[in-house]
Amino acid sequence: MKVLINVCEYRSLFQELLRGFEVKCIEEAEDEFIKEVEVFIAAGWKDVERLLPKLKNLKMIQTLSAGVNHLHFDRIPEHVIVCSNAGANAVAVAELALTHILVALKKYVYRYEEMKKGKFPQMIESRLLRDKTVGIIGLGNVGTSLIRLLKCFSPKIMGISRSGRTRENIDFVGDMGDLDYLLSQADIVVLALPLTKETRGLINREKLKLMKKDAILVNVARGKIIVEKDLFEHLKENPQFTAALDTWWHYGDEFKQEYPFEKLPNVLMTPHCGGVYENFWEDLIRHAAENVKLFYEGKPRNVVNRDDYL
User: Which one, out of 14, 112, 240, 245, has a CA that is 20 to 30 A from the CA of 201?
Assistant: First the structure.
């Protein structure tokens, strides 16, 4: 089976992991090879878009990212399956979500900034994670990894999944019909679900108003699950409310959103780095390569339902 990759600096690792397959990088692949390729392991969309007309025998696109909202499914032939790389870096993203929770509860950034000014804000009370209610929206790989990390802190854990089920032992599990209930009960809400046509703009002004005045909203999923304007205004109107954001609405060489979140004191910010850690590329590649082998055996995982994006 012929496999095309576009992360050329890891060609050797792909070839080692996919022994028995003919693996080439887009920089070296001839047109004849590209025409016969069955699997394209791709980072990003641009190379996929450029090469699709030449990929006459393509059967599978395997992404290196967990999210697939960057793909234009209307341009991908219906017979081509798309598989995400969900799970490859789930523990790292869950660790960052937990970090955001603890930093917010302990007023870490405020104390740090005050000490830089020569102050010593020892007696400002922080909050315990113990006995707090943590609501996790999305119980896939990241959500379940976060549940396991949280348990040693003894919070109450609520969760929402599309199916309304989870294999984890938590205090409450529901489906999207229970979203309002979870938002109203949770001290901390973590978004860990994919960006689809159904989840885009899910957290809007109406949903934010359901949350507790001093709630913490953590987003390690995708920025556009939240309505940007609504969150900014909610933060301004509710100074006790905290947003801890790793994912954003607008990306570029510089950090610039439609609204100046960086000027608000109740916002914690990281630059979409949850999945970036030592040797993360190797983890992504190994996970993707495993799925290519599963595809060859007729049992691929993480097959995307394109109707979620069309």
Answer: 240
